[in-house]
Structures
1.
Amino acid sequence: MYGPSTIAARRIFKRAIIQGGLEAVSLMSKAGIMPGARGMGAIFTLHHVRPATTKEFDPTAHLTITPEFLDASITKLKADGHIPVALEDLPEFLANPNQAGPAMVFTLDDGYRDNDMHARPVFEKHGVPYTVFISGGFVDRTHSIWWETAEQLINQVDEFTFDYGRGDVSLPTRTLVEKYAAFDRLHKTFTCAEQESIASELDAKARAAGICPTGIVDREVMDENELRQLATRPLARLGAHTIGHLNLAHLTSEQMRSEIIRSSERVAEITGEMPRTLAYPYGDRCAAGPREYQAAEELGFKLAVTTNPGVLHRKDLRRQFALHRISLNGYYQKRRYVGALASGIPFALI
Ligand SMILES: [Zn+2]
């Protein structure tokens, strides 16, 4: 059992290690000693894109980058020879041996309203295509976003009581360190788990504290009309991201397929055509595996993306339903890190 300050120290330590890796690779690249590891490019994952805030308790800061950082990243990638490619055109790109440079592919998960407000103008300025993955339950305000609910709830209360699996546990959440510890414990509970019952317990606790979980979704996520507008933009594509944003690997096969099929149909109602791309919610190895990859293929997608980190290679043509992505992470918003991330090397270092 670790105390709140140990958990906080681990958070800081992990960030320092990754930052160190990025600095090292950025220096190696500057010195011209970077091995040719960038492969055929990278698919980048973004979530929120919005101006920097000065929130004290910000447990999901890694999910937010600023429009200025996005702008600087694209400028840097272009200068390094990366070519903008739409996600759904990636298989043709990878199959062509005569490409002038590696690809840069942009994806944004969850359909946040700031994507249209702050990211779209940057993509349009640079002529860069992008795919927004939307969850039907967020679009229709029938499902909450647990990490947004948890942030607001834990920020507000001085004590957080939750059943993490073995009965109610009360944690003090007065100080910032205690708040981060409670959030991290909840995060751990949601990771690699059947999430529906945990999410409804969290929603009930939030409501009891006067917070409306679907009200948060309404504030943060684009609704059907906004998505319809966005889909008419020439560089924008919408992709499927299920209905309930649940860990698919922990659902029955029928539930998992239904989550995917219904989300495709929901996208088609908005855009007029079935989406060709799918992003598995959470997307790591305990949220999507061979069963989900096979379902994506059988359900008619052209490709699907995970959040397993890595750059693109020609061999990805043989694993089109388990493509790797690289997160543009809010903790590392420095222009020089983007080239390092796109090189794929930091993943070997951490
Ligand atoms: Zn997501």
2.
Amino acid sequence: MTAQQHSYTAKLNILLASYELHYQNLRSLHWNVKGNNFFELHLKYEELYTRTQIIIDEVAERILTLGTTPLSRFSDYLNHSVIPENELITDGKKGMNYILEAQKSLLHIERMILSQASECEDEGTVALMSDLVREKEKTNWMFAAWLG
Ligand SMILES: [Fe+2]
């Protein structure tokens, strides 16, 4: 494995750890949301954590496909995630604002991985990252629209 490959494989583990924290933050939002938008947001948060669960598995299995080991312990996730654990959020606007900011952080890592994997002609990783980037660009527009 070249130094460049080693670098983005390590970033894939940072991405995995960040998605794990994001996943649990989304569960917390789903459980604790209060207010007039309860039904709308309770469902939206569920949709987001369900999708995040699938992404987590895809990223972990990509790490394995590249011949390395995905982080799998909560303590490792806490140490490597760029997304911190949230305090309890009940307010819908704060929740959606958190999601928008978290997605920007995830997008930043994905773009770095995409660029390095592209230089290594690792098309499988490029394809996975470009799907995630495209999806997040679209949903970020939607979250920004919701926030007004
Ligand atoms: Fe539920």
